[in-house]
Design goal:
The complex is a heterodimer of chains A (780) and B (170). Chain A is α+β, with helices and mostly antiparallel strands and 780 residues long. Chain A is built from 20 helices and 24 strands. Chain A has four domains: 197 residues, no CATH class; 217 residues, no CATH class; 199 residues, no CATH class; 60 residues, no CATH class. In chain B, strand 3 and strand 4 form a beta hairpin. The chains are: A alpha+beta (780), B alpha+beta (170). Chains A and B meet through helix 10, strand 8, helix 12, helix 17 and strand 23 of A and helix 1, helix 2, helix 3, strand 1 and strand 5 of B.
Chain lengths: 780, 170
């Protein structure tokens, strides 16, 4: 039966403020903020200005409550990734999805959950499936803005008197998402459909209860059910604690004050950010670049994905005169058929994790900073794929690489202003990821992802060495975890953990060192594992004369004689492999198959009991000329095992001897003499840069370089006219010189759009869109 | 707002501060007078008189010449180029593009593979100091790291006049 005409004409009353729909509210905020340059058009902060103590009290109550929610809720989890490593965070949002206050932890998700809320608003969830008090939503779809599928979001609306006053969001990094390979960040997916169970902003609960169909489907879609269940309870518990907290604050302060507060705190965050920029940086432009290897040619992937290539991450930071920050990734190359693509929200949100450790090291992290920033993220690049099919499972391989030049750019400002304590030569490539799965020691279907990767060498500063085996960029509170706990949840016995000498980048101040864990498979069945890390390339450059951190390598052994050796009480490998040029385990085992090489990205390999796997973590980059290093510090490094003796000589010019008790002693006078000599050697071997350029130019004209290098340039040229022109102009190339993707001897499957040819982007609505989020400058 | 005396900033520059003090500096609001103290210390330490406008890296400075030119200069006295140019194009370069050259810096399995990446070292032609290192793919244009807007920095942000040359001051 047709509805009466007057009923059809009547506008629907929204769940937003004063009966507005959320879509109306979202548009109003975006327009007002854009038009005035102030969040929500707030040119003044009446609440903060009239009663600053009250304003700070509300902030502290919310911030403290959200941190408390995280600390309490994480005890619900059983997964050591959450419970030991703290891979979770919670955040409170406005009705429009802007972050107000956040917890500690993996705060990259402040942005990703905001993107999910904006996606729901944009897609009229208010009408269908409806947004009601007591609802629970779930998202892990990276095409909506998530980082990768293993970061699972729980989002709960918060109502007051029938009006939506905000959202609570919680995220945990789950152990497995049912991807083609076990482990949360599988290597092997080359398309979205292999990344694992994808949940696109789905309503999974009503009246604070999870729906049965969700419980059954989700638990049958992943490998590690009990961890999944407890992770979900963790997220829901935290969100409900935050909802109670907001209700308490509203009861205490009144709804109108709360509404005013959530607007003002974001504008306050924006102002604070601009103020920090002006206090610590210098207006101008800062450029850097980084690369990561994608060695898939010999891996078990479809034919079109069997290529060796390189991910190119150039960046230019502009510090504007008015204190706005702009970061432009123009020149980034095309997305690929591998597991390392990213979305704009993951790169921009990750920048915030990084900035919270350097430029804005305070608890006022909210979306205000976004409103003071602009990002240029080229469409079609691996940072912003124009094809819905892309895989993202191990996006951190490339993301951590893309961020490291940003540290260097900011550090040039800190150095110039004298804030030397803030200088950081860059972040480590936070790998290897030891992952895999099968049947564990308890006879259960299982998957593992060792979060030992939460502890790497930190980049050197301008006043001290980077801290060794300490931290990872993406979780400021990370930890390597206790071996005893890992052994409980993984059928992998520790045969040792050891510092890896010469892994931190050399310099006046060296990067923090990496370390290694040697694991032996024990009690597993149908077990596979794989490696994920940088091998053929260093991820950073070092700063002001310091060297990049070392790259990684792979060691694993299959069908060993360790059982026999253990039975006979013969020596077996223990500890790390401290000098890879002289393999530590040579006489300690035999095996039918050994992999010891630089192929650090691999797909599933079968492992059985007594097989070995060396988990090699990475170091941080160095700062300053190594010949400026205090020789006494080189002596300490030698005695504490942070450097191999031959590099103390060849890199630091140290002259030393080893005493009978094994202690190294550096001769200061001879070292000074040797260093003088080394500088003379540099002057003799160095050539004027412009002279060297002539020779390099000829190589490029003749297109002499490995296939992976040529492919990287061709795929950057294809999607960036600007980068092509800059490259050609730098090398003074004729107008007609060009390198095309389809002239290379490798598949071009999926490479459709290019500025110089007709082509169509393969997309769907909402894919990688940044909905009302800061400002995303269109690419050239 | 924290404040630090000249001795503390000198110790910071020389890497002599204890970690607890560095931690305190990291956790405090920045001291706006730092730049002035820092610049004065650096100026007193270099063996030449050109006023430093901005430190441009370890051993490198943007200085003002008596004729008003702003150039990049090493603390050894070597003068590279106009500050708007890329000083690396006026340096000496050494490219580690073979396994042997890379293995002088890293163990074999921990060095980049020269088929994928090379290491470029830039030296001061005056003193042989290694001023910057680039780890890039072959063919990569020499990176221009830093383009500061010195005038805006002094005029609008610091609200201070630019340092004058001794000649101009007379």
């Amino acid at each position: 039966m047709a509805k009466p005409a007057e009923k059809l004409a009547q506008p629907r009353r929204g769940i937003g403020w004063k009966g507005k729909t959320l879509k109306q509210m979202r548009r109003e905020i975006t327009e007002l903020s854009k038009k005035t340059g102030h969040y929500a058009g707030l040119t003044s902060l009446p609440l903060k200005e009239s009663d600053p103590i009250r304003f700070e009290k509300i902030f502290s109550k919310l911030r403290g409550g959200i941190v408390h929610a995280r600390e309490t809720a994480k005890k619900v989890a059983a997964s050591p990734i959450v419970e030991q490593e703290g891979e979770l965070c919670f955040s409170l949002y406005t009705p429009e999805g802007d972050s107000i206050v956040t917890s500690t932890g993996i705060i990259i998700h402040v942005g990703t959950m905001g993107a999910a809320i904006k996606f729901m608003i944009e897609n009229d969830y208010e009408e269908n499936p409806g947004i009601e008090d007591g609802d629970i939503f779930c998202n892990n779809d990276n095409s909506v803005g998530n980082v990768h599928t293993c970061d699972v979001h729980t989002i709960v609306p918060i109502f007051w008197d029938g009006e939506l006053v905000g959202w609570a969001g919680g995220v945990t990094h789950v152990i497995d998402t049912g991807a083609v390979a076990p482990g949360s960040m599988a290597i092997g997916p080359v398309q979205r459909y292999e990344d694992g169970y994808q949940v696109t902003c789905r309503k999974i609960g009503k009246n604070d209860q999870l729906l049965k169909d969700w419980i059954l489907e989700s638990q049958r879609s992943i490998r590690t059910t009990k961890y999944w269940v407890l992770d979900e309870k963790t997220r829901i518990a935290g969100c409900h604690m935050i909802r109670d907290l907001v209700h308490d604050v509203i009861r205490e302060e009144g709804i109108e004050v709360y509404k005013q507060f959530i607007r003002e705190i974001i504008e306050d965050g924006r102002r604070g950010f601009v103020n920090q920029v002006r206090s610590m940086l210098i207006p101008g432009k800062y450029r850097g670049v980084s690369f990561c290897d994608v060695p898939m040619k010999n891996n078990n992937v479809p034919a079109y994905a069997k290529v060796d290539t390189i991910m190119h991450s150039p960046s230019e930071i502009t510090v504007h005169k008015d204190g706005r920050l702009e970061i432009d990734f123009e020149g980034t190359n095309r997305w690929g058929w591998h597991s390392f693509n990213a979305t704009p929200v993951s790169i921009t949100s990750g920048i915030w994790v990084m900035l919270s450790q350097t430029l804005v090291p305070n608890d006022r992290i909210n979306d205000g900073a976004y409103y003071a920033s602009t990002f240029g993220i080229p469409r079609g690049s691996w940072l912003n794929p124009d094809d819905i099919r892309t895989a993202h499972s191990e996006t951190w391989h490339s993301l951590v690489t893309a961020w490291t030049p940003l540290w260097r750019g900011l550090s040039r400002c800190y150095f110039s202003r004298g804030y030397l304590e803030e200088v950081n030569a860059g972040n480590a490539h936070t790998t290897n990821w030891l992952q895999g799965g099968g049947i564990n020691q308890y006879g259960e279907i299982h998957a593992v992802n060792s979060f030992e990767a939460a502890a790497h060498g930190v980049g050197a500063s301008a006043v001290k060495d980077g801290i060794s085996h300490a931290a990872a960029l993406w979780n400021p509170e990370g930890d390597m975890g206790d071996m005893e706990i890992w052994e409980l949840v993984e059928p992998l016995i520790f045969l040792g953990r050891q510092i890896l000498p010469s892994s931190g980048g050399a310099g006046k101040y060296r990067g923090g060192n990496a370390w290694q864990s040697l694991r032996m498979v024990w009690g597993a069945k149908d077990w596979t594992m794989f490696f994920s890390g940088n091998g053929y390339m260093c991820a950073d450059c070092g700063l002001m004369g310091g060297y990049p951190a070392a790259s990684g390598y792979r060691f694993c052994a299959h069908d060993t004689d360790l059982k026999e050796r253990i039975d006979k009480r013969l020596p077996i490998p223990t500890g790390g492999d401290p000098d890879p040029d002289h393999f530590a385990y040579t006489s300690l085992f035999n095996a039918k198959e050994v992999h010891r090489d630089k192929l650090c990205v691999t797909t599933e390999e079968l492992f059985k009991d007594y097989d070995l796997y060396l988990n090699t973590l990475r170091g941080g980059p160095g700062f300053g000329d190594p010949l400026d290093r205090d020789p006494k510090k080189v002596e300490e490094d030698l005695n504490e095992g942070y450097i191999l003796p031959r590099f103390a000589e060849s890199v630091y010019g140290a002259v030393f001897h080893q005493q009978e008790d094994g202690k190294y002693v550096v001769d200061l006078e001879k070292t000074a003499e040797r260093r003088k000599q080394m500088k003379e050697e540099r002057l003799a071997r160095g050539v004027p840069t412009k002279q060297w350029m002539e020779q390099e130019r000829q190589h490029i004209l003749e297109k002499k370089a490995s296939l992976q290098v040529r492919h990287m340039y061709a795929s950057s040229f294809a999607i960036s006219k600007k980068f092509t022109e800059q490259f050609k102009s730098f090398w003074n190339f004729p107008e007609d010189w060009m390198l095309y993707e389809d002239e290379l001897e490798m598949p071009v499957y999926g490479a459709h759009w290019a500025w110089y040819k007709e082509g169509k982007r393969v997309n769907i609505k909402g894919h990688t869109e940044v909905l009302g989020y800061g400002e995303l400058r269109p690419s050239s | 707002m924290a404040t630090y005396d000249r001795k503390t900033i000198e110790d910071l520059i020389d890497g002599k501060l204890e970690f607890y003090k560095i931690k305190e500096m990291l956790s405090s609001h920045k001291d706006p007078e730092r730049f002035e103290i820092y610049l004065q210390i650096l100026q007193d330490r270099v063996p030449w008189d050109d006023p430093i406008l901005l430190p441009a890296g370890l051993h490198l400075y943007i200085v003002q010449k008596p004729n008003g030119d702003r150039i990049v200069k090493c603390d050894c006295g070597y003068e590279f180029c106009d500050y708007r140019d890329n000083w690396k194009l006026h340096a000496l370069i050494f490219v580690r593009d073979t396994v042997e050259k890379l293995n002088e810096i890293y163990p074999k399995l921990m060095a980049p593979d020269p088929e994928w990446q090379v290491i470029r070292e830039y030296y001061c032609p005056g003193c042989g100091t290694q001023l910057e290192v680039e780890a890039v793919t072959p063919w990569y244009p020499v990176i221009k790291d830093f383009e500061p807007d010195i005038d805006t920095f002094y005029r609008d942000w610091l609200q201070k006049p630019l340092p004058e040359t001794k000649q101009a001051a007379k």
